[in-house]
Design brief:
This protein has 2 helices and 6 strands; from the N terminus they run ββαββββα. With 172 residues, it is of the alpha+beta class.
Length: 172
């Protein structure tokens, strides 16, 4: 996967819970599109809510994939519920906390919270700005009859590198 919306895993309880963070910087090109300066207003760089939801999907998806040692191809099947109450911008850190609420051979359901730390006011700590409930499918077990490639195209080198640099062992 080319676009990673998490920077580091900071906590992992296998088959239960994972916490990851994303540091937002002005070096990220998408911030300059949301929202550029106009004749009336200065630029307002914010991370779109859809990318925060994707960050939660990556966090929860890695948790679900890790549960079976990344043997399953885990894909997002459904966003059951998503609420984002506040924008996040440069100089802030997003913390994604995901927990598995159900898992079986067909897939998994997760609940997650999104918290924000504004480094300009770091003493205030993290505050919850959203929640996201997701469902994942183990596509090789989805009974559709479709044959998928043997290699795990979902959990490629990018996610493996993320996990290794976070101190989590993964097979090569």
């Amino acid at each position: 996967m080319r676009w990673m919306w998490i920077d580091r895993v900071i906590e992992l309880e296998p088959r239960k819970r994972m916490v990851a963070i994303k540091n937002i910087t002005l070096a990220e090109e998408h911030l300059h599109d949301h929202f550029p300066a106009t004749e009336i207003e200065p630029a307002l760089p914010v991370m779109p809510a859809s990318l925060m939801i994707e960050g939660m999907a990556q966090t929860a998806g890695v948790l679900v994939g890790h549960a079976e040692g990344f043997k399953e191809k885990v894909i997002l099947a459904k966003v059951s519920d998503a609420t984002i109450n506040e924008d996040a911008g440069p100089g802030m850190t997003i913390r994604y906390s995901a927990e598995i609420t159900q898992i079986d051979e067909q897939g998994a359901a997760t609940k997650g919270t999104i918290e924000l730390l504004d480094h300009a006011n770091a003493d205030a700590g993290y505050r919850q700005i959203g929640s996201v409930d997701l469902m994942f499918s183990h596509i090789d077990n989805n009974r559709s009859g479709i044959e998928f490639p043997e290699h795990n195209f979902v959990f490629g080198d990018g996610f493996k590198t993320l996990l290794r640099t976070s101190g989590i062992e993964v097979e090569a």
